[in-house]
Design brief:
single chain, about 290 residues, mainly alpha, MetI-like fold, elongated
Length: about 290
Amino acid sequence: MTNEIEPSISEFAYIRRVLLSRGVVVFGLIIILILIITAIFAPLMAPYDPYDQDLDQVLQQPSWEHLLGTDSLGRDTLSRIIYGSRNSLMVGLVALCIAATIGMTIGLVAGYFGGWINTVFMRFIDSLMCFPMILLALVLAALLGSGLRNVMIALGVAMLPGYARLMCGQVLSVKENDYVLAARSLGTSDAHIILRHILPNCLPPLIVLVTMQIGAAILAEAGLSFLGIGIEPPGAAWGTMINDGREYMLTNPILSCAPGLAIMLVVFSFNMVGDGMRDALDPRLRGTL
């Protein structure tokens, strides 16, 4: 039992050492941790109700009463950014769950069984990849309508081709290994081979892709909200806040700059952590880091 556990502990220790040895990755992890805490405890951390309008306090400059000022309806900007983090994180995680689950399943089945199954599934994926991810999400969101649930579905479908393609390529490579061929020659069932031998060996690059695409999903959600087909008003969304603050850029730039900075920090953090995960999980770099 000890011999089976030690490799996993050693692998985890190596990944942790690689991640914590890079300052930019540590910075990203701290920002992500702050984002998660803020999203979970938003009702406790927000100084005001993000939906409460006070027409006597419209377009207030930053002060001790309103640290980031107020918007054109008198709503506290800081409170709306805090609640916006909850929506952004939820959209990113749910969209990735949809994309990863469906995309990995399609790629796994297509790569393992091959033949006409591979042809049909991959041609479907190719048809989706003809469109840029944000454009496909835009079309799907317009068809489904605005709202948090529809945005998550649209982004999930728009992002799944990448997972299907990557998983299919990994499966095509792994299924030719000797241990898979040996298991098949012994009469092992396809389900056992897939779950026991193929799937675990395909996960490292997919973990990296998931980490890096959380930021992409958050950025895409902000873009959809900016265009008016994301989270419905008066819901707090960073993209909507940027759009609402555009006409006040000269007199009250913080209305757009504050949520823009939040998006930049979060996307940068997930990308840096994803980059660190890629280096930690890349066997070609083992021993050089």
